[in-house]
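RECORD TYPE: inverse folding
INPUT: structure tokens
STRUCTURE:
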């Protein structure tokens, strides 16, 4: 099978309204908003957009509502060059998340509205799982919102030699299954703590998990403490986080790390180089509001890694686009 895609993402859609403020208001009080932006959201969605902005050929498999936010979601993927032939617009109200970014504490909080009468669009059906489409990818990337048929899609990928990558955002029964059925696991600190407690022997624990589960690469992202990981050929690393610019919003930081890492990994780079590249993608994104607008392209990432400066030439245009895009009329 010809590999038309570097990466295909699997996820049901969600749209974010990113809200920037100095600090969350206390109950019964008010805070002034500094900015707001509409952006497609979701762990996998942001990762695929990030990989596509680096130059990866990407596709998408999932569902979204047949409303204006759902159409926005589809158009945005296409704007990033992602194939949406297997993104299905289904009857229902697209899930909306309010993403509250506090500058004072560098924290984010979320309010999620799952649709009218709690009726978001339905999940994929068995007929939607096109094995030929899945087999046309080198990588399949999944996360916690990848739907009820995730295991069937993963099985199709593994039958066809597709590398399975997992966003381990939190340790649930749903994602615990993936530990035995993935090739690349990039987990959050919360996922890691669920497995290993407060043990900070990150590299050795990643190696232990690789030996037990047979995966190829295992990484834990540690926010302001950087990241650590290992692979099955004996490479291991622990690198600090980048600094030098103000952090505006960490929403999507882990998501775009995945996208940057998968792009780098698909180029055959050494493990630590992949992780440094992914960390740079994530850090640059965090200097802008929301999970989407600040995702750099490859040129901006390479400049940052070379001299520590951030120059995202289209940033103002992207801010304007995401500030206005949902005023559809």
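DESIGNED SEQUENCE:
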């Amino acid at each position: 099978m010809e590999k038309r895609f570097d990466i295909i993402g699997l996820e049901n859609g969600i749209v974010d309204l990113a809200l920037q403020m100095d600090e969350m208001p206390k109950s019964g009080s008010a805070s002034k908003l500094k900015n707001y932006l509409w952006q497609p959201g979701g762990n996998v969605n942001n990762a695929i957009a990030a990989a596509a902005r680096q130059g990866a050929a990407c596709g998408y498999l999932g569902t979204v509502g047949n409303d204006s936010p759902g159409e926005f979601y589809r158009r945005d993927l296409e704007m990033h060059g992602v194939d949406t032939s297997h993104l299905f617009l289904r009857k229902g109200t697209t899930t909306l998340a309010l993403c509250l970014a506090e500058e004072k504490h560098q924290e984010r909080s979320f309010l999620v509205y799952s649709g009218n009468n709690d009726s978001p669009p339905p999940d994929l059906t068995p007929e939607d799982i096109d094995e030929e489409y899945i087999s046309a990818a080198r990588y399949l990337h999944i996360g916690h919102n990848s739907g009820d048929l995730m295991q069937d899609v993963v099985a199709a990928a593994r039958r066809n030699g597709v590398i399975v990558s997992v966003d381990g955002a939190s340790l649930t029964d749903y994602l615990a299954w993936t530990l035995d059925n993935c090739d690349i696991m990039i987990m959050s600190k919360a996922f890691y703590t669920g497995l290993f407690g407060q043990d900070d022997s990150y590299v050795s624990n990643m190696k232990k998990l690789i030996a037990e589960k047979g995966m190829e690469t295992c990484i834990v992202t540690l926010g302001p403490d950087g990241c650590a990981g290992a692979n099955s050929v004996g490479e291991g690393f622990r690198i600090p986080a980048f600094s030098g610019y103000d952090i505006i919003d960490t929403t999507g930081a882990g998501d775009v790390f995945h996208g940057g890492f998968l792009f780098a990994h698909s180029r055959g780079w050494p493990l630590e180089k992949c992780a440094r590249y992914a960390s740079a993608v994530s850090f640059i994104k965090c200097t802008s509001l929301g999970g989407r607008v600040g995702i750099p392209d490859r040129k901006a990432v390479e400049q940052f890694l070379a001299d520590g400066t951030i120059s995202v030439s289209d940033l103002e245009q992207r801010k304007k686009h995401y500030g206005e895009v949902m005023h559809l009329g």
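NOTES: The radius of gyration is 19 Å.
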